[in-house]
Predict the 3D structure of the following.
Amino acid sequence: MRYPDGGGLTPAVRAKREQVRLEAAGLFAAGMSPPEVAKKLRVSRKSAYVWHKAWRTAGTGALESKGPGGQRCRRAGSSPTPPANPSS
């Protein structure tokens, strides 16, 4: 089944998740460890470690949202059109 929004996250949900990641960056900068950040922000330890590595490598910008996931539509038109029926 296909979802009308493409099955991804809404812009509001993406923004909320980005805020959590940016808050984590601030906590890392304050010297908090990934397990402490995970507990404080109620996220998995794995996420906290991934964010910490990204933050250490590329700074806070690495934790900003990259936009909606998935591939871009390759169709030229803005709305899908059904395929032509050659037998008609």
